[in-house]
Design a protein that fits this description.
The chain is an alpha/beta fold. Helices cover about 40% and strands about 25% of the residues. The protein has seven helices and eight strands. It has helices at about 30-35, 45-55, 70-85, 90-105, 105-115, 130-140, 185-195, and strands at about 5-10, 15-20, 25-30, 65, 125-130, 145-155, 160-170, 170-180. It has a five-stranded mixed beta sheet with strand order 3-2-1-4-5. β2 (about 15-20) and β3 (about 25-30) form a beta hairpin. It is globular, with a radius of gyration of 18 Å. The N and C termini lie far apart (about 50 Å). The protein binds fe (ii) ion (FE2). The site of fe (ii) ion (FE2) has 4 residues, from α6.
Length: about 200
């Protein structure tokens, strides 16, 4: 039996899900427990719910997977500030201390929060997936298709904003991507923000 706990946190709509032997057996958003709309905090309640539904403790999970790679994302943010300097210095000065504290040390933050749920949890079980790969997997694996073309269009993840992948059985390969700053999702966001 292989069981995997998936976590999304620290951005918007934090959530957890559990996969046991390839099937999704539980999934929940943190806001359902805290009653805070779009709650972005670490999803302790959602994780406990997923574990309880499966009669598992955290130490019994085989892997805990975080939905994106914080270091790659940090690299994009730094390079963007460098490319737009000195105009961007003010927002740089505000954002970077926050990034260093919260994002760059996200792995430690994850470990600490998980150990609070179960102090015997081993941090070697934590893995990081790429943002668009996570989106593609969540669309393809629960679908009825053995083979499919997968399209993801987002604001931005680490670098990718749009990807095309081919899914075959249990394998997904990204074959094309559009990278930041070119982003249909961010254009959409800019307009809705303006409105
Ligand atoms: Fe996304």
């Amino acid at each position: 039996m292989t069981n995997i706990l998936g976590i999304s946190a620290f951005y918007h709509d934090s959530a957890a899900s559990m996969i046991v032997n390839g099937d999704i057996t539980a999934a929940a958003q943190e806001e359902r427990f805290t009653r805070i709309k779009h709650d972005a905090n670490f999803p302790t309640n959602a994780i406990k719910y997923c574990l309880n539904e499966n009669n598992l403790s955290l130490r019994e999970t085989d892997y805990v997977v975080f939905y994106e790679k914080p270091f790659l994302k940090f690299e994009r943010i730094l390079e963007t500030y460098v490319a737009t300097a000195p105009k961007s210095f003010r927002s740089f000065a505000v954002a970077i201390p926050l990034w260093i504290r919260e994002k760059l040390f996200q792995k430690n933050l994850l470990i600490n929060q998980l150990k609070e749920i179960d102090n015997k949890f081993s941090s070697r079980k934590i893995m990081f997936s790429e943002h668009h790969f996570s989106h593609a997997a969540s669309a393809f694996y629960p679908s009825p298709f053995e083979e499919a073309i997968i399209l993801t269009i987002d604001g931005v993840g680490e670098w990718a904003t749009t990807t095309v992948s081919i899914g075959k059985k249990n394998d997904i390969k990204i074959i094309k991507e559009i990278n930041f700053p070119h982003s249909l999702g961010l254009l959409y966001s800019a307009f809705t923000y303006y409105l």
